[in-house]
Design goal:
Blueprint lengths: L1 H27 L7 E4 L11 E9 L3 E4 L5 E4 L2 E2 L6 E7 L7 E9 L2 E9 L11 E5 L9 E6 L8 E4 L4 E5 L1 E2 L4 E2 L2 E6 L3 E2 L6 E10 L4 H4 E7 L4 E4 L13 E7 L7 E10 L6 E11 L12 H4 L14 E8 L2 E11 L4 E9 L1 H4 L16 H4 L12 E4 L10 H6 L6 E4 L1 H4 L2 H14 L3 E9 L6 E3 L5 E3 L3 E9 L8 E9 L14 E2 L1 H8 L7 H5 L1 H8 L12
Antiparallel strand pairs: 1-2, 2-6, 3-5, 3-7, 4-6, 7-8, 9-22, 10-15, 11-12, 12-22, 13-14, 15-21, 16-21, 17-20, 17-22, 18-19, 18-21, 23-24, 24-25, 25-28, 26-27, 28-31, 29-30, 31-32, 32-33
Length: 554
């Protein structure tokens, strides 16, 4: 019996062994499809001070995380497959520089998924959210250094921080002796670590003048990983011609991803010509810069009577429309100066359809959505220096519906004006033209600003520099079919940017013919009038003196 028991036990073990072998063979032939799930798919931006952040992953096979930068700890960075969620803890070191990014890759058996980790910069709340590097020069030279190649004995420096203008300033012109000196000096950034695999672009603002050849005398350079300096060419249209700060352009920096770079501003001059160069808001920003295309249009093809001809190729024709009672109406067109951040003119029709009061003033101050927040002025509060937010197309001229009125509060329709001017002669002029329009069939108006020769700047709500115009104007074309003597009449008005005081009601003193206004402004107004009534008749209308015509009630 004992032998039988042993035999049966051995037999059972043999059967079990065979069964296990069969099961193993079946398992080995079964293919497991890799699976990874990550939650959340997008992580919030980590604080510059550092700290922890979690995400969870579910992987059915053994997994591993790669692409971990030295500023980020990942725990655990690998694990076994499981049907349950596993928590991964990210710990970032404090960031004392610019925005930094990492792309972590979770991999299992040939399958991978990425998750982006972004840590905020340490440049403060005034810096753009996507800043990889930012130095505004608002209070000092920051982390930049100066390398003088040639500084004449008569001058103690070329580059200096200007507390007056809140920028870095370079010049080799000596005011006391009115002499120009030959010089060369470099303003060099600290080393900037560019995130690997990230899109980015470089930009800054500058102002200045009195150059001999700015493209040789005010230049920008980049050095990669301690190598030679390479020039980043500034387009000629992006060089300043006044003390109004403008954008120098935008340079794609994708080629420098994963590198350590330095940016330099090289100033040079001759004994014949020593310009002045002012630089501020130097930034490398994460992402891809998308430039707004300036639309160039032929106003005669639009067949809108209010449109003037273009007198500067850098300005663009833009237009806003609105819907009312199931119809689409044109609201206003404008020509935008990106250099000055003002519209040089705003053109619009006026009749009872537009001015009939159906809504109240909206005060819907906003960026112009055509340009976006980066290129549009920000009209959310009064301009620095207590300049009023003056409308070019008055809000009171667009009370027909909410959408039409809201569009009059876009940054492209707002312009800095002295309060005394805005609430004085300018308001009186607006009211007078509105009364003319209400007694006419249609009135066409071009309201504009004169920025040529302007040397005063203010700031909008974003801190962008806005040119303060030296003068304002209105070109007005009136159409009234029943007025047989003056079916078409025109008047021009031109005001200097000042307080007119006791003369606020004297509109006759600022009136003139369209011909005279064209001479003063350089614009060609009402270019479609000749096609409507003939060249000779149009010329007669544009030469009219409104002060001697009863139509205008001056």
């Amino acid at each position: 019996m004992k032998l039988m028991s042993i035999f049966m036990a051995v037999s059972a073990m043999f059967v079990m062994s065979v069964a296990c072998d069969k099961k193993s063979a079946i398992d080995d032939s079964f293919e497991v499809v890799p699976s990874i799930k990550i939650s959340p798919v997008e992580l919030p931006v980590m604080n510059a001070a550092g700290g922890n952040m979690n995400f969870s992953l579910t992987a059915n096979l053994d997994w591993v995380i790669s692409g971990i930068p030295d500023w980020l700890a990942v725990s655990p960075s690998s694990g076994e497959g499981s049907r349950y969620k596993q928590t991964v803890v990210l710990t970032a070191q404090p960031n004392k520089a610019g925005l930094r990014e990492a792309v972590l890759t979770v991999s299992v058996d040939g399958l991978s998924k990425d998750i982006k980790v972004i840590q905020n910069h340490s440049f403060g709340s005034d810096a753009p959210e996507n800043a990889i590097f930012y130095e505004p020069f608002t209070s000092s030279i920051g982390g930049f250094t100066i390398k003088d190649v040639n500084v004449p004995q008569a001058l103690s420096f070329v580059w200096e921080y200007s507390d007056q203008y809140k920028c870095m300033k370079a010049t080799a012109y000596e005011n006391a002796t009115t002499k120009n000196y030959a010089s060369e000096s470099w303003l060099i950034s600290p080393e900037i670590e560019m995130p690997a695999g990230a899109e980015s672009y470089f930009t800054f603002e500058h102002a200045g003048g009195y150059f001999g050849n700015a493209s040789n005398e005010a230049t920008v350079w980049v050095s990669k990983n301690g190598g030679d300096w390479e020039e980043l060419e500034i387009e000629s249209k992006n060089y300043p011609t006044s003390w109004t700060f403008i954008s120098a352009g935008n340079w794609d920096m994708d080629a420098y991803a994963g590198s350590k770079i330095k940016i330099a501003f090289r100033y040079s001059s001759t004994s014949t010509k020593a310009g002045t160069w002012e630089v501020r808001n130097v930034a490398i920003l994460s992402g891809e810069y998308s430039e707004v295309q300036v639309p160039v249009a032929d106003p005669t093809k639009a067949d809108w009577m209010e449109l003037p001809a273009m007198n500067n190729s850098s300005y663009g024709y833009y237009a806003h429309h609105f819907s009312m009672k199931n119809q689409v109406y044109r609201n206003y067109s404008f020509a935008w100066s990106q250099q000055d951040l003002v519209s040089v003119w705003v053109a619009y029709p006026l009749c009872k359809t537009y001015t009939e009061k159906n809504v109240d003033r909206t005060d819907a101050w906003a960026y112009d959505p055509i340009l976006g927040s980066e290129l549009s002025a920000a009209p959310f509060s009064y301009y620095a220096g207590d300049y009023a937010r003056g409308h070019q197309l008055p809000s009171a001229d667009r009370l027909c519906c909410k959408e039409a009125n809201e569009q009059t509060f876009y940054g492209t329709n707002i312009i800095p004006q002295l309060n005394e001017h805005n609430e004085g002669i300018w308001q009186n002029l607006e009211n007078h033209i509105r009364s003319i329009a209400n007694s006419s069939d249609t009135t066409y108006v071009v309201t504009g600003s004169v920025v040529q020769g302007a040397d005063e700047i203010t700031e909008d709500s974003d801190g962008k520099s806005i040119t303060v115009p030296v003068a304002f104007f209105k070109a007005v074309l009136r159409y009234k079919k029943s007025d047989s003597a003056n079916v078409w009449s025109a008047a021009g008005f031109y005001t200097e940017h000042k307080n007119y005081g006791s003369q606020n009601s004297n509109l006759k003193a600022i009136s003139m013919s369209i011909d005279e206004l064209e001479t003063k402004t350089g614009h060609d107004f009402f270019v479609n009038l000749a096609a409507k009534i003939g060249a000779d008749n149009a010329a007669a209308v544009e030469s009219q003196n409104p002060a001697s015509s009863s139509v205008w009630g001056l």
